[in-house]
Amino acid sequence: LCGTLFRSLARYEIKYKKNRDDQNYLFMLTLVLNKRQTAAVLDSLTDAEVEKIVLAPLALPGSENLHVTDQARRNVALQTCACCGKREQAIATFFKCSKCKCTYYCGAECQKQDWKAHKKLCPQLAA
Predict the structure, then answer these.
(1) Mind giving me the DSSP string for 18-66?
(2) Rounded to an integer, what distance in angstroms lies between the CA atom of residue 20 and that of residue 38?
(3) Are 2 and 50 in contact (CB under 8 A)?
């Protein structure tokens, strides 16, 4: 969701040729990734690069005062399937265990396959 939103807002700034002083998103391409501010560059960004842009303000001095929880950081991170190790291509596309809400799966098949091992850990993770 964050990646899609960032791309849409940055694309808007390109479309309407916002100058640097009026940009809220596009300037991050140069600041964080040292890339040019073009539609082609924006379209070629990986989700990992967008994640880096979205999380960059949290690494600034003074950001500790923002009280960003670990849960909030996980919400904008790409997850990895607990069974097969596949990484999400877009934020919030994997399923998470409905009980512990800590373990992610790329699909129902992986969740079923991992259940025997996960059911032992799940109550501890849910606590």
Answers:
(1) --GGG-SSTHHHHHHH-----HHHHHH--HHHHHHHHHGGGGSTTGGGG
(2) 13
(3) yes
Q: What is the pLDDT of residues 108-121, one digit of tens each?
A: 999 999 999 999 99
**Is residue 104 very low, low, confident or very high in pLDDT (cuts 50, 70, 90)?**
very high
Q: CB–CB of 127/100 below 8 Å?
A: no
Count of other CB atoms within 10 angstroms of residue 23: 17
Q: What is the CA radius of gyration of the chain?
A: 18
Pick the closest to residue 37 from 19, 58, 54, 51 (CA basis): 19
- Specify the residue for token string 């940009």: 23
**Whole-model pTM over 0.85:** no
**What does the pLDDT read at residue 85?**
92
Residues 6+ apart with CB under 8 A from 55: 73, 76, 77
Using pLDDT thresholds of 50, 70 and 90, give the confidence band for residue 3: confident
